[in-house]
Amino acid sequence: MILRRIITVILFALFFLILELNSNSVWGWILLALLTAGFTVLFECGVMKSSIPLKATAWCAYFLLFAAVLFITYPPVKRVPAVKNSDPEATGIVEIRDGKVQGVVNDDRTVEVFAGIPYAAPPVGDLRFKEPQDPTPWEGVLKADSFAPMSMQPRNVPIYYSLADLIGYHDYKWFDLSDNYRPAISEDSLYVNVWRPKDAGKDLPVLVYIHGGSLQTGQPWYKDYSGENLAKEGVIVVNMGYRLGVFGYLALEELAAESENGTTGNYGMLDQIKALEWVRDNIAYFGGDPSNVTLAGESAGSAAVSALCTSPLSKGLFRRVIMESSTVASVKPPHSYRSFDDALASGRAFMEKYGVHTLDELRALPAEKIVDAAYSEHHMTVDGYALKEDPYLSYQKGAYHEEAVLHGFNAEESGPFIIFSRADLKNFESKIRAYFGKYTDEVLQYYPAATDAEADEYWAEIYGAVFFDYPHYAYDRLAVKNGIPHYEYIFTKHNGRLGCWHSGEQVYAYGNIPQDSKLYDEGDRALMSTFMRYFLNFIRTGDPNGEDLPLFPQNDDSLTYLELGDEVKTAHEKERKIGLFGILDRMQNE
């Protein structure tokens, strides 16, 4: 009996944990408690005391009924509220080009948030795989109090994301009844969000942010890059949803033929340009200065920013850029980009896979059926319209838009990408050979691993250098050639959460370390203040330097950075990585 009671308690705790991690509604917890109580009463009353078959049946019924509870209390789908307060104060009404909007005020009444404002018509039905169109003006007042659905993307069960927060980010908010739902997802996702200071005034600098996610996943309202704390400092922040995966980057000759612009394959990029045009036409209504716009992005969002710097369609829509952990400035960008021929070949393979022969059939396919094609269709390309040529060639000709650049990368970019592909002495050389081929022996001279620990360390450095560091190195040289003022950082700060892994810097740069988080200490918060001040100065003037800040040097030799870590100081590239960059140069130009 004691053993059964122990097992019951353990199972109840396990099932309760599953319901919590899966964000099931509170009814799931109530039903589980009732189910467990009833099950316990049956045993305590001796109903099944002497019958092993009845006991086995009861245990099976307990598991099956829990599965039923898990199913019937599955978290509902809803839009994410723009602020945490369940009953927020409404803002005044702002009249923009297409109608009137009313947002909500944040908890400490310092920032107004206008969420879910359409910047383009929903790209559904006949508008799927077409250039974004103007939104339909609306009557009355649009309640902009919640974020629009995230763009269509592959999606896992909620428990997956909870475990990612818990295991990958070391960060999870337990027993929070405010998040017992699944964020909405839809093809209808072309909306902007605006954060502005309360009582904003006029002619404030503007930051437009493009989220990352390999052009496959992501959403514009994630807490790490929320615009709230930059807005408190007098900056208007805008971000947007844009088409992802197959919906944003499928390329077909038939689609190009039907387009009046002859374009295909860059629908996500065209969405980003449409959002920038919305900023140009509307941001003054919120108090922003359309002539003082900084365009920023991280990871694939940064790659998108890099491409937009050379798009003929984005000229005059921004002045300066911030690029975090990616560019497409190298001869052969390592990710988020491909040739037009490769894009068309992939598009034909997509049509064959789904047995589609006409564009009408293509547009009739349910979004849920083709969303997993994001794994193959998530690359920008040279379509002759949004991009006339490879960005590298545009920079060689001096054809670009940015007046100044703040950019950089993290010391351990590779962290999340090699969790399941660690290196040791047995596989180190084969991993190097798979990528570097005939240059393997030369690479091994720079990285002569003698132990498993060294092999793992070197593999992490090489992976990060190839996919993240080198693209910034490539941009450096182009910026020097063209005389573009550019300021480069390397982020090296460890903490209890992401540390200096890929995307770990964002919570610092955007001022979003939670006040009550035990994953960060006072040193982290001091660095956040410094990093954010560099960002703010750059957004306002194009120069990150300011009073009482360590000098942020212009990078004139491609080898000097500002290190943002336990100390803020000038740092120089490691000799072995410089050698690796030389090898990558030769590979790029073959």
Report the strand count: 17
Return the CATH class of the largest domain. Answer: Alpha Beta
**Proportion of beta-strand residues:** 15-25%
Give the number of helices. 19
The level of helicity is: 25-40%
Mean pLDDT, rounded to whole units? Answer: 94
Largest sheet: 13 strands, mixed
Look at the helices and sheets and give the structural class.
alpha/beta
CATH homologous superfamily identity of the largest domain? Alpha/Beta hydrolase fold, catalytic domain
Distance between the termini: 74 Å
The tally of domains stands at 3
Fold and architecture overview:
- The model has no long low-confidence stretch (mean pLDDT 94).
- The protein has helices at 2-21, 26-44, 52-72, 158-168, 228-231, 245-249, 253-258, 267-282, 300-308, 340-353, 359-364, 367-370, 391-396, 428-436, 440-446, 452-482, 506-509, 522-541, 575-588; strands spanning 77-78, 90-96, 99-105, 111-118, 141-143, 150-151, 182-183, 185-186, 191-197, 204-210, 236-240, 288-298, 320-324, 405-410, 486-491, 560-564, 568-572.
- A hairpin with a 2-residue loop joins strand 2 and strand 3.
- Helix 1 (2-21) packs antiparallel against helix 2, helix 2 (26-44) runs antiparallel to helix 3 (52-72) and helix 16 crosses helix 19.
- It is an alpha/beta fold.
